[in-house]
Amino acid sequence: MGGKDIVATEDDYLLIIGCAYGEYEFDTAEEAQAAALDGSWTVRIGHAPNRSPGAAEGQSLIGHEPVHESELEGYHMWKEAFEAGKAGVF
Asked: Which segments of 5-74 are extended strands (E)?
């Protein structure tokens, strides 16, 4: 919150939902679903860390697939910065 550290008053477990966002390149949800299934979409943001209450706000589920190690570069960069106290969660 505003660059300030907040100390939880009790044990707190933070669920972080990582999302990748693509370019606006499809005319229909069906086209986006097909691209998600075959991995042919263009990644715009490789990792956006969200807390669970806001992760789905304003979003549409197109599909989900297991994450491949090759897709985790942005996550690893964020995690290293987060553990060093230099990155946050939206």
From this structure: 16-22, 43-51
CA gap 57, 59 in Å, rounded:
5
- pLDDT for 25-51, tens place per residue? 999 989 988 888 887 888 888 888 888
pTM, to two decimals: 0.60
The owner of tokens 């549409």 is 60
Q: Are 59 and 53 in contact (CB under 8 A)?
A: no
In DSSP terms, 48 is beta-bridged to 19
Q: What is the pLDDT of residues 8-26, one digit of tens each?
A: 666 666 777 888 888 889 9
